[in-house]
Write a structure and sequence with these properties.
The protein is an alpha/beta fold. The chain folds into 3 domains: about 170 residues, FAD/NAD(P)-binding domain (3-Layer(bba) Sandwich); about 110 residues, FAD/NAD(P)-binding domain (3-Layer(bba) Sandwich), CATH 3.50.50.60; about 80 residues, Enolase-like, domain 1. Strand 19 and strand 20 form a beta hairpin. The strands form 7 sheets. Strands 3-2-1-7-18 form a 5-stranded parallel sheet, with helices on one face. It has a 5-stranded antiparallel sheet with strand order 21-22-25-24-23. The chain has a 4-stranded parallel sheet with strand order 11-10-9-15, covered by helices on one side. Helix 1 packs parallel to helix 7. The structure holds flavin-adenine dinucleotide (FAD). The site of flavin-adenine dinucleotide has 36 residues, from helix 1, strand 2, helix 7 and strand 21.
Length: about 375
Amino acid sequence: MNHVVVVGAGLSGVRSVEALRARGFGGRITLIGQERHRPYDRPPLSKSVLLGDADSSFVDSDLAALEVDFWPGVAAKALREGAVETTEGELGYDGLVIATGAEPILLPGDGPQHVLRTLDDSLELRARLVPGARVAVIGAGWIGAEVATAARRAGCAVTVVEAGPAPLTHAVGAELGARTQHWYEGIDLRLDTMVASVEEGGVALVGGGFVDAHVVVTGIGVRPAVEWLADADLDLHNGVVTDEHLRTSLPNVVAVGDCAAWWSRRFGTRLRVEHWDTALGAPEVAAATLLGEEAVYDPVPYFWSEQFGHMVQYAGHHPAGERLVYRGEATGKWSACWLAGDDTLAAVLAVDRPRDLVQGRRIIEAGHRLDTERLVDPDVPLRDC
Ligand code: FAD
C-alpha cells in the first residue's frame, strides 16, 4: 500500500493519520478536509469556546512531523473504487479512510437559524449571545442544553423548545430526562412543543404559537455526512456500514467516527455513536485493518456533557437495558443504571459522580451482575454492588 487518502479532517481523520504512522506506515498520506481549519476538537465549541473561555480548540497533532499532505478547504464529491473525486480533481488511493463525520439537521423556514457544528458556527453564535438578546434554542438534547447554559450565563432571555415531554428525551428517555428539568431555572422551557418553521423574528410553532427571538439555534440532531458517497458502490445504512474491523463493503476502505455504523460484538447490534471517544479510539483499529493486521473495535461507548454547572457522563448502550435504577436524589449528585434482564449493567449515566462512571464502565466491560438492593444505595460504591 503506497498511498492512503483520509477524507474528513476532524478528530477521527487526524487520529487515523497518527495511527497509520504509529503502526509504521511509511507511504504517502493525503488528508482532505472541506473546512479551511486544521483539525480541531468539537466538544469545546458548545462549552469553553461558546462561553468565551477559549477561542479555538485545535488538536495538537503536528501535521508536518506526520508528513501528511493536508488539503484544507477541499471537499470529496464522489467515490469510485480506487479514486476519490474532489473539488480539486481526482485523487487515486490504495487505502481509504472515510471520516466525514456528521452534519446538523435544519428546520424548515426562511428565517436565519444557527447550528453548532464548526468552529466558525461557535464563534458566530458567541457574538450573538449578548445580555438581553432573546434566544430560542430548538431541542433540549445535549447540544441544546449546552447552548442554553451558555446563553443563560451570557444574560440572554432564553426559550428552549422541546418536542418531547422532558429534556434529553431522545437521548436517554423521558423518565430520566425529567430529572434534569429543574436545571432549566430562569429559562422558558416549552416541553411537548413542536416547531413548524423558523421565520424572520422567531419560531412558528405547530398549532399556531410564535416564539419571538433575535437568535434561533437549531439543535435537533445530526445526520451522517455521507451524501458524497450516494453513487458509490458502498453499503450505506444510517452512515457507512462496517464490520467489527471497521471494514466497509469496498476493498481497502475503512470508516471511522460519527459517519461509521459498525458491528458491535459486545452488544450484538450495529452502532453509530456520535461521541468524541469513538472518534478518538476507532482510528487505531481502522489503521490496523487497513494495514492488514487483525483488530476488532468493540468499546463500551462513552460520552460526557457539561450543562447548567453539572458534569453528565454516560457509558454503555442503554437499549440493551430493561430496568432503570437510580442512585441518589435528583436534587443532588446522582446516577442511573440500566440493567439487562440478567442484572448485568447495560449502561450508566452519572451526574457529578465520576466514580460511578469509571466503575460502571469497568463493570459493563467485565459483564458482572449487580445486586440491585445495594445498587440503590448511593453510599455503596458501584464496584461493591
Ligand atoms: P467530525 O468532527 O464531524 O469531522 C468530520 C470532518 O469531515 C468535518 O470537518 C467535515 O467538514 C469534514 N467533511 C465532511 N464531509 C466532507 C467531504 N465530503 N469532503 C471533505 N471533508 C468533509 N462528544 C462527546 O463525547 N462529548 C461532548 O461533550 C461533545 N460535545 C460536542 C459539542 C459539539 C458542538 C459538537 C458538534 C459535537 C460534540 N461531541 C461531543 C461529538 C464529537 O465532537 C464528535 O463525535 C466528533 O467530532 C466526531 O468526529 P469525526 O471526526 O468523526 O467527525
